[in-house]
Amino acid sequence: MQNSAIGKSHPRVDARGKVTGETLYSGDVHRAKMLHMKILFAERPHAKVKNIHLTKALASPGVVAIFTAKDVPNNEYGLQIPDQPVFCGPGSSKPYTDIVRFVGDQIAAVVANTESQAHDAMKLIEVDYEDLPPLLDPITAMRSDALVLHPDRGDTNICVHYKIRKGDVDEAFKQADVIVESEYHTPVQEHAYLQPEAGLAYIDENGLIAVESAGQWTHADRKSIAHALDLPEESVRVIYPAIGGAFGGREDLSVQIPLALAAWKLQRPVKIIWSRRESIIGHGKRHEVFLKAKWGATKDGKVIAIENEIIGDGGAYMYTSNKVLGNSAITSTGPYFIPNVKTDVYGVYTNNLPGAAFRGFGAPQALFMAESQMNKLAEKLGIDPVEFRLKNALRDGDTMGVGTPAPGPVTVVQCIEAARDKFGWKKKTKKKVNKKSNQYSVVSGRGFAAGFKNVGFSFGYQENCWAKVEIYGNGKIEKVILHHAGAEVGQGTHTVMIQMAAQALSVPTDIIDLRVSDSATQENPGSASASRLTFMAGNSIKGAAELALQKWNNEERPAIAEFKYLAPRTTPMDKETGFSTPNFQYAWVAQACEVEVDTETGHVKVTRILSADDVGKAINPDLIVGQIEGAIVQAHGYAVLEDFKMKDGKVLTDQFSNYLLPTILDIPEKVESVLVEIPDPNGPWGARGVGELPYLPVAPVIAAAIHDATGVWINEFPFTPERVLRALGKIK
Hints:
17 helices; 26 strands; globular; five-stranded mixed beta sheet; 3 domains; 732 residues; alpha+beta
């Protein structure tokens, strides 16, 4: 038996190619006789496309073809429901597809011999629009008299509504000694992956329409492309080259269907690369959310009643709003046992950019509210915030807001204690320290927050994941080929896959040949989202390896086996009460931080942040630490710096020059990671998912520290200098 392949920080298998430039991303892929595409965006939030005049553009030098709505056999797509046109305009058989619903809706695709020719021709397209009144905030859009944006999908813009009803909230509030009521607002966030949307489509050697582009789920991409082209799924092939970041933003399609359409119609390779501005206005964003909370507790420190209302801006199309806001509903109680809960969660169509999947998937917004409420209650009761959390933390057997116990072990207590101890949190310290200089004053404070999130898909969907293992050798195992289509979006999944295969087969990692991300040769892996790939891929690889090893031991050479892992079943939320077992696994986190606030300039500086995450089993500890540090830096940008701006439905911050991202000088000075390892019984070697987990409590932990430093609560972010100074009463 070889030494264990898991629990060790093996180098990333993709590292050398990426640092040397040998690795090809979507924008690097070329083919002979390749054409180039540019896409015309609507650039207006709400309008009817009356006519599209192509004569001048078609006569422009180098133009081969221009595609519009009339060229798409089935002019609709969408990951959850097909409510978005491929192209907006007349000529489609689908109703209401001539309506533009946000600035990034696509009108036409120009294909030319060169990119510059396609760009020049695109500017010659003339579109007759009838502008319609835009709905730009979900509160207004919810009203019964609001213009309905999707009349074919009902008589309201409310596209999602979840209810949780547990216990008797009204009676419980009568028993509460302390009640805290607050309103919160969380902002839009841009994914800001370094690789913009790009791709190449062509007809492969087997006659399939092949699309090479970045995504998060090969087989879901294939299904959407085939549906729009009205073709069998097997006639479409999706291949992922290297992917330069995703964070949920590549779950929904961008360039894939226009590329596939053009390659299919023209029988030639077609390539596109979006500019940064096209990327920012063309893909969905983290949901903007408006939250109201009323929480009550007894004087002995028990939270006994909560009432929440959460309204998420779904934007122009569904994307994954139903799933994102389902997670908001589940996490809106925080990782605590609350006997009486009333929560309503709404998703609303507007004419803003679509709300999309983004790391944390609805939990960061809900937990900003929940953890802020916990900190406010603790202060009102005069109880240390860590002690207060431990009094209320979920334990094995406790029912969640949805009325059923979380799958065990429930480890938020261990995470809270680990964060408390490693941070050196003490109940009694000076509230703040002043450092005075000639012309400014800096105050410091500390904060604490916790969180949790599901791993894997949920709400009754049967989670599954496929793997194939081939073993070769003469007497002993000399080579292993591992097939898995799970996407490597920068998180290190392919490295971990090899480690888990090596562990299952008791072989060295260097004899494993990994074949990845090709829908023509591999079955469905599920998405690289929901912190699921280590858990799901690990179980599928383990199953395939064990079956192949049985064949090998029975002297079947080569030994080849496939395995489809089915996760434990979940159930959908009851429409009236939310009662359900919505997830098969959760992961738990607690964080503490220190900040310095310059009360003269309003600048917030995070000097130290510590995150204790239960990962179940660390398959590759260094990769996990990288995930924790990356999540904290990304969430710190969300909380402190990134300020996405729109006006009249148009994006103002449409470049990295005006949508400011944290640089090395802006991120927290010290980030500490504590790996809590309490094995999950269903996880491969006990592993839990961790990709999103460290992101979740960052905004509320910083808010708590700002309050500790300044004495003011700030209920919306980013915590920009202007917002901090306004809270301090120094500006209006």
